[in-house]
Amino acid sequence: MNEIKVDLKRAIYNLPFFLTCTAMVIVIAIGAGRELIFPGDIDIGLSSYYHGQLIFKALSSDIVLMVVPILCTLPYTVAFLEEYSSGFIMPYLIKCDKRAYIKGKVLGAGISGGLSLATGVLLSYFIAYLVYSPLEVADPTAISPLNVLVRKTLVYFLCGSLWASLGSLLANVTLSKYMAYAAPFVIYYVLVFLSERYFHGIYVINPKEWLAPKEFWIGGDWGIILLLILLNIIVMLINDVIIEGRIDG
């Protein structure tokens, strides 16, 4: 258990994680477009919860959807591969529990990837709230966007976790760092291409549809969240087996 905690700390408390969170905030700001700087008629006040509308629009923009499979792979995807390639892993395993070590590497890659995107989303929302809420006109009939924010943040967390875990898996299979960063992006856009070009009815395989749904989903965002949880479990279990095979081999 201690090895898992150590890996999770290493996965989150590092420079790549901080840079990924920062990059996510910047990309969301770009995705918000001109409305970020020119929000409308400030003299009469902005609509209630304008800050939420701005961020949710940005989260569905092409640039944000494009960088998701790239940014999430940066924090901790190649952690096991680096230790395995350097030879550090064998003397280290003598001092720790092998199963806990493997779980730490699997969970570290996924959680850091997902948390970096989710943190970027929450930071962007908080900044938008600080900037625009004083300019908004209160409307007692307006519905708070916090429920939507929670769902969107969960979806981004699970998507980041999935692509980071997939990058880690493919890197450990091929023993190539390049696969960790390039493969998730390529697979992401292959699935988008296949879904939009050939398999219109099978929109569940379209990663853009997970982040910015346009089709009908049973349960709405919660249906997407359930699908992503299942995919995360499958990829992490396979990665667990691959890492154990590398260690035992």
For the structure shown, list the relevant keywords.
249 residues; mainly alpha; 11 helices
- Low-confidence spans: none
Characterize the quaternary organization of these chains.
single chain
By DSSP, the count of extended strands is 0
Shape: globular
The total domain count is: 1
Biggest beta sheet summary: none
Averaged pLDDT: 91
**Helix proportion range:** over 70%
Q: Indicate the structural class.
A: mainly alpha
Distance between the termini: 24 Å
What proportion of the residues form beta strands (DSSP E)? under 5%
H/E element order = HHHHHHHHHHH
The Rg value, from CA coordinates, equals 20 Å
Describe this protein's structure:
By secondary structure, the chain is mainly α. The protein has one domain (2-248). It is built from eleven helices and no strands. The longest helix is centred in the middle third of the chain and has 35 residues, at 98-132. It starts with a helix and ends with a helix. The relative contact order is 0.15. The mean pLDDT is 91.
